[in-house]
Amino acid sequence: MQNALFVGVSSQVALARELDVIANNMANVSTTGFKARSARFEEYLMPTASADSFMGSDRRVSYVVDQGTPLDLSQGPIEPDGNPMHVAVRGDAFLVVRTPAGDRFTRNGAFEIDAKGTLVNSDGYTVQGDGGPITISQQETGLAIAPDGTVSTNLGVRGRIRLVTFKNPGALKNEGANVYSSTEQPRAAGLDGRVEPGALERSNVKPVLEMTRLMDVNRTYTTVSSIISRLDDLRGTAIRRLADVA
C-alpha cells in the first residue's frame, strides 16, 4: 500500500510539471518567434529486494521520472506585416542578441533603432551582426534587410545580421524574454537559415492542442488524487481494525 502511495505521488509531481509547461506555452501563444516545449517522462522500475528466506521475488514498483522538456523547433507561421525592420527566421537558425548576461539566441525578429542608433529587438537587446552591433545614423534613409541578413541604407551596406545554428538545438535553455542560452558553441547558419524581410514568425504553439492536453492533465491529476485519498482511507481503516483486534 505504501508503494502505491509513492507511485501516485510521483505521478502527481510529473503531472504538475506538465501543467507548468502547458501554462507557459499558453502564455506565449502571441509571443513572436516563441517555441513550445513538451513534457517527457519515462518509467523507472525500483530495484527489488532479495533474500534466500523470501518465499518469492518481489514485484518491481514502477515510478514516473521527469526526463526534461524538449523544445519544439518546428517552424511557426510566417506573417507578413510590411515593416522593413522586421524579419522572420526560416530554417533552423537563430538570431544573436547581446544581453546583460552575454550573447543569447532568439527567433524574435521585431527590430527597431534605439536612441543611440543601434539595431535592437523589441526587448531592447542589441542585435549582433557578423562584425558586431549594427548602427544606423539619423541621416540615413531607405533601410532594407536582404534575405541573407544584409542591412543597407542609402549610404550602402551597414552590416549583416548574424545567424547561427546548433548541433543540438534541443538543448537550448530558456532564460526569459524569449531568449535562449547554450553551452554549445554556435556555428554560422550558412544555408540552414535565412530571413524573410517585412514579416514576423509567430509562436508555434497550437492552442487547441494545448487546451486538450490541459484537460487531460487535469482529469488525470484528479483521478490520481482520488486514488491516493482512497488508499489513505484504506490504510487508516486497516490500522484502526488492527488496533481493535489487539
UniProtKB/TrEMBL annotation:
GO CC annotation, single: bacterial-type flagellum basal body, rod
Family matches, as Pfam families: Flg_bb_rod (PF00460), Flg_bbr_C (PF06429), LlgE_F_G_D1 (PF22692)
Keyword Ribosomal protein: no
Keywords: Bacterial flagellum, Cell projection, Cilium, Flagellum
Domain Flagellar basal body rod protein N-terminal per the UniProt entry, residue ranges: 7-35
Listed name of the protein: Flagellar basal-body rod protein FlgF
SUPFAM superfamilies assigned: Flagellar hook protein flgE
InterPro entries attached to this UniProt entry: Flag_bb_rod_N, Flagellar_FlgE/F/G, Flg_bb/hook_C_dom, FlgE/F/G-like, FlgF, LlgE_F_G-like_D1
Principal subcellular localization: other
Source species, domain of life: Bacteria
Domain Flagellar hook protein FlgE/F/G-like D1, chain residue ranges per copy: 88-152
Family membership noted in the UniProt record: Belongs to the flagella basal body rod proteins family.
Compartment(s) where it occurs, according to its Swiss-Prot or TrEMBL record: Bacterial flagellum basal body
Record-annotated Flagellar basal-body/hook protein C-terminal domain positions: 197-240
Gene that this polypeptide is encoded by: flgF
One GO process term, biological-process aspect: bacterial-type flagellum-dependent swarming motility
Subunit structure and binding partners: The basal body constitutes a major portion of the flagellar organelle and consists of five rings (E,L,P,S, and M) mounted on a central rod. The rod consists of about 26 subunits of FlgG in the distal portion, and FlgB, FlgC and FlgF are thought to build up the proximal portion of the rod with about 6 subunits each.
